[in-house]
Amino acid sequence: DGGITQSPKYLFRKEGQNVTLSCEQNLNHDAMYWYRQDPGQGLRLIYYSQIVNDFQKGDIAEGYSVSREKKESFPLTVTSAQKNPTAFYLCASSEGQRYTGELFFGEGSRLTVL
Amino acid sequence: GENVEQHPSTLSVQEGDSAVIKCTYSDSASNYFPWYKQELGKGPQLIIDIRSNVGEKKDQRIAVTLNKTAKHFSLHITETQPEDSAVYFCVSGSARQLTFGSGTQLTVLP
Asked: Which helix (H) or strand (E) holds B35?
């Protein structure tokens, strides 16, 4: 089955530690995205990548980093500089531009900082 | 930047009744308006979308209307069923950005 796979589903981290969330897609999509979801809020864009070896900051990139070395993979690192990292993180991909076509989402990773 | 307001934040309806969710947006350049459904513990999934050259679109029990002059769009679900219970997000898209509303928790009561 084609889709987006995120791992881990649940993750606990101590303050001051970096953590990396995995996102893999087998849809052959060029574009991939990371969103953050907080209770009672819409999805906010962290980073996006339209093509391999290129990525752009979204609305809330501070404290996060990404890489796009392969078309199918777009890992997100939550660094210790992120002041409020506890959230639900969603990875998505699209065949074309995100603002003109469907986004395909993974099932998310819930990060809790202890 | 774009501002999308979505109402209500929670909505409870009896099974078989209709549900309506409304959104307003601010960017006149917005021309793409998808709606996503998010079931508990899962990622959002596109259920219907509308582009600015169309005023209404229907897909079985789901319909979306768009009023570009007033900058608002709505989702209508008829004959609601328990499996319609989820969080629904409206989205406003332009050539520069995609902005999500804050979501509506719909509960369909049996």
From this structure: strand B32-38
Q: Are A78 and A60 in contact (CB under 8 A)?
A: no
User: Which tens digits make up the pLDDT trace of A50-91?
Assistant: 999 999 999 999 999 999 999 999 999 999 888 899 999 999
Q: Which amino acid is at A86?
A: T
Which of B45, B61, B50, B57 lies closest to B25, judged by CA?
B50
Chain A positions touching B35 (Cβ under 8 A) are none
A88 by Cβ neighbours in 10 Å (0-12 / 13-18 / 19+) ranks as: middle
| Chain B residues closer than 8 Å to A102 by CB | 34, 46, 49
Query: CB contacts < 8 Å between A and B, how many?
Result: 50
- Cβ-defined contact of B49 to A4 (cutoff 8 Å): no
Enter the DSSP assignment of B29: T
B4: nearest CA in chain A? A42
Other Cβ atoms less than 10 A from the Cβ of B20: the count is 16
